[in-house]
Amino acid sequence: MTERQTEVLAVLNRIVDAWNDGDAAAYASHFTEDADYVTFFGMNMPGRAIIESAHRSLFEGPLKGSKLVSGGGEPKVRFIRPDVAIVVSGGGSSLSGGDKPEPGRESTLTYVLVEEAGGWRVASFQNTRVSDPAASAD
């Protein structure tokens, strides 16, 4: 793994830490001011302020005590320019604080990170729930 890949993945680790601490301000701080955050059900939360506000409500309410956990193997990091990285990884959440995604909470996550003066930040995020299309055909 290159040093730049390590820098990008460190941002994602800090995002996980902030979520697991229930810290909406720290969580949102890793996104650009104008970031697009697309939830697993398709809602776009545009901008760092909205990302922070929405996550504050989640961390104080239905997702209080939840944990983000990894899954789906190693993240794939690809640089499309020296200052733009795309990361595709698996992951999910545990409402009970466990170390594996709970059923129905496993996702494929896509991040677009840009390098700014203060370091790497997420400019776009997409959370897509893993599902079995064959199972839903019934």
UniProtKB/TrEMBL annotation:
Domain called DUF4440: residue spans:
8-122
| Superkingdom classification of source | Bacteria
What's the name of the protein?
DUF4440 domain-containing protein
